[in-house]
Amino acid sequence: MKIMLDAGHSYNTVGKRSPDGMREYEFNRVVANYMKALLEEYEGVTVYFSHSDKKDVSLQERTDKANQLAVDCFVSIHANAYGSGWNEAQGIETYVYKTKPPEATKLAERVQKNLIVATGLRDRGVKSANFHVLRATKMTAILVECGFMTNQSELQLLRSDLYRKTCAEAIVKGIREHFQLKLKSPDQLQKQESLFHVRIGPFFEKKQAEELMTRLRGIGYEASVQEG
Prior knowledge:
This protein has eight helices and six strands; from the N terminus they run E-H-E-H-E-E-H-E-H-E-H-H-H-H. By secondary structure, the chain is of the alpha/beta class.
């Protein structure tokens, strides 16, 4: 099974940030990274990213990539906002395309339920919208709004690594339930751990290593720089 994770927007998308300056993409990309690690523990699952830490990937590029790879599921991760200033808008909501395709709606309902149970935030329900990533994708697609950046209490959560992990785990649980995914055996996990570590280098300048790390992360690899 092929799953594409879409961390909405980018570091430089205009307006997609909290009133005090947190970029939405900061939350979105971390949740996507946690989800990728969790999903790869299931049999037959391959995870792709539509986004990049290096550049702002257009909506069309994202959906074109998903369609070209013929992924089975597309999940767009977001933090919500109401206006540009602080307000009391709150809660979590999950979207499907406006025609409400049954398969996407069922997935959205499972994801929404797990997010509400895991976070305790207000349940804003499953809704429909004409978002590009839902309209232009040819597979089961949902878009999740994990709390409001314009609500000061929820912004504190969105900044928390624990909350980001909680959201990732809840979304993955919904995906697992919907597609009836099975965990890999301990032997498979051990084999995966030992076979897919690649060391690239050395580099004499740290900047060069970090630039390559950024490119690798942008195409979906878990990359890091080690000194010594």
